[in-house]
Structure formats: C-alpha cells, structure tokens
Write a structure and sequence with these properties.
There is one protein chain. The chain has 317 residues and is an alpha/beta fold. It has 14 helices and 10 strands. It has 2 domains: 5-126 and 207-316, 3-Layer(aba) Sandwich (Malonyl-Coenzyme A Acyl Carrier Protein, domain 2), CATH 3.40.366; 131-199, Malonyl-CoA ACP transacylase, ACP-binding (Alpha-Beta Plaits). A 6-stranded mixed sheet has the order 8-7-2-1-9-10, with helices on both faces. A 4-stranded antiparallel sheet has the order 4-5-3-6. Helix 2 (29-42) crosses helix 7, helix 5 (61-79) runs antiparallel to helix 7 (108-128) and helix 8 packs across helix 9 (175-187).
C-alpha cells in the first residue's frame, strides 16, 4: 500500500526528441555519468544519437526506448539524495522500467539493455504481423470498447491499448481493422481520430510474438524488491514482489496501459503530488485531466531541475 507522499511519473515512447538530455549533461556531472554508463552498457554511443540525431534513427523503437529511460534516470539521480518523501512510482509503458530503476529494483545497465531488447522485439513483432494505432478523442471508454468489438472480425483484431485520460484513449491492432474502427468511432461521436506513426500494434495481441524474447531477457537479469511500490500498467495496482514485477512487465506487451486507473489508484491511496521525470510533460498534462486536484510538476530540462533543486525541493520534502 502507498501512503501520503510524492508519486514519481516516468514517460513512455513518443517523448523523445533530438537534443534530449544535452542540457542536463552540460550542467550536471551526475547526468553526464548516467549517459556514459548507458553508452558502456550498450557498447555504442546512445548519447550521441540523443544529442545529435538523426531523428529518423532516434525515433526507431529500439533507440527511443533506451533514450527515454536514460533521460528519466538521469533526472532521478539528481533528486534521489534530496530526501524526497517518495511513496510510489508509475511509468507509462516503457516508463515502468524507469520506475523500477528509480525504486532500486532494476540495475540501470540491465534496464538499458532490456529496453533496447524490448524495442527490438516490438519492432520485429510489427514486421511479422503489421499493425498500427490510432488515438480517439472525445469518446467514452465503453463506446470505444464497443467500436473495437464491432470492427474486429475474420480479417483481424483491434483493442483499446492506452487508457490515457477521460475521453482520450488509443486503439491498436491490424491496420485494416484499426481503419474500420476509426470510421466507426467517428460515427459514434469521436471528436478526433488521429492515426499514430508507429512500427507496430503495441499493447495488443499482435505483440504476442515478442513475449518469449522479453521473458528470456528478464530471466537473465536480477529484479529486487523495490524500495517503494511501482504501479503496474496491467493491473493499476502497486507491486512489491519481484516475481510479480517480472511477470507483469511481460504481460504489459499485450495488455492495455491502464493509466487512468493507475493515477486514480495512487490518489485514492493518498498521493496528491507528482513529479514527472524525463523528456516532455505529457504525463503532467494527463494528470490534470484525470484529477484536477492533484499537483504535478515536470522535470526534464536543466533549467527545470536547477530551479526545483534551488527553490522548490524543500517545499516538496
């Protein structure tokens, strides 16, 4: 169970950009060390790709996933010795791995290599069974679920993949079926349907071929009991058991991201202040839509981190 304190939020794929983390390493030696550790773990310069691109390489799933994790962990390492009362952490999809690193359950180098492998497996799954995703805005969850059921058939399947905020979810599946679901969603009253530029149908049954490889990778590394609970994308419940963490990280590949329920659960258990650590501020925006009473702050740039450490950390402690 979680209690009063701070919740850490870690972003997922889509938050990357060329130049990510460069200002952090220029100002904070600990951040530079973090990127150097990642380069050593991978055996090539992820840091150069983050800072210089090219964008068409950084955006690839196998590169974007470790890049975002490293940026997130670099920010966390700048905060971890400030005695912040962290009670829980959650990460969106890939971000769940970042959360386990912050909680001390995963070694950083192991996590970097694992999410690199995860990205490769997801890309390979997308090639074996091509699929896509689309964001539906302004449609109730039950209506979206019905749309997916009606669209699915003998030529494929589409399912809800990300429950991101009230009236904002993502569907995932076979390309032709996602397109059919998009038409049905518009007819059902969706305000917007936005096709997503992705390499596969993430968080859907189409990712099942990646499960065995990720299971093998996770068996090869150690997972300890986290120092604070990490909320599972699959169950929206806090996890403390290493075996459960290992199992749920695999199930996450083919299960929807229960982000709304995850945030609501953390708030219900007493967490009302959240720090988003890593590139961008997507999760802080979603937090406001899920619970307007919750306080959220994004920390990803050097200026944001410096200001927080210099002026605000005491108020959050």
């Amino acid at each position: 169970m979680t209690g009063p304190g701070i919740g850490l939020l870690f972003p997922g794929q889509g938050s990357h950009f060329v130049g990510m983390g460069k200002d952090l390493v220029e100002r904070f030696p600990r951040a530079r060390e973090t990127f150097q550790e990642a380069d050593e773990a991978l055996g090539w310069s992820l840091s150069r790709l983050c800072w210089e691109g090219p964008e068409d390489e950084l955006v690839l799933t196998r590169n974007a996933q470790p890049a975002i994790l490293v940026h997130s962990v670099a920010v966390w390492r700048l905060l971890e010795d400030r005695n912040l009362p962290v009670s829980v952490a959650a990460g969106h999809s890939l971000g769940e791995f970042s959360a386990y690193v912050a909680a001390g359950a995963l070694e950083f180098a192991d996590a970097v290599r694992t999410v690199r492998r995860r990205g490769e497996l997801m890309f390979e799954s997308g090639k074996e069974r091509p699929g896509t995703m689309a964001a539906l805005l302004g449609l109730a969850d039950d209506v979206a679920d019905r749309v997916c059921t009606e669209a699915s058939g003998g030529d494929g399947v589409v399912v809800p993949a990300n429950f991101n905020a009230p009236g904002q979810l993502v569907i995932s599946g076979d390309r032709v079926v996602v397109e059919r679901a998009a038409d049905l969603a518009r007819a059902a009253g969706a305000k917007r349907v936005i096709p997503l530029n992705v390499s596969g149908a993430f968080h859907s049954p189409l990712m099942h071929v990646a499960r065995e490889g990720l299971e093998e990778q996770l068996r090869s590394i150690g997972i300890r009991e986290p120092g604070f609970p990490v909320v599972s994308n699959v169950t929206a419940a806090p996890v403390r058991d290493p075996d459960a963490a290992r199992r749920l990280l695999v199930e996450q590949l083919t299960s929807p991201v229960q982000w709304v329920s995850s945030v609501q659960g953390m708030v219900t258990r007493g967490t009302s202040r959240f720090l988003e650590l890593g590139p961008g501020n997507v999760l802080t925006g979603l937090l406001r839509r899920i619970d307007r009473a919750a306080e959220g702050k994004a920390l990803g740039t050097a200026d944001q981190v410096h200001s927080f450490l210099a002026e605000e950390v005491a108020a959050w402690s």
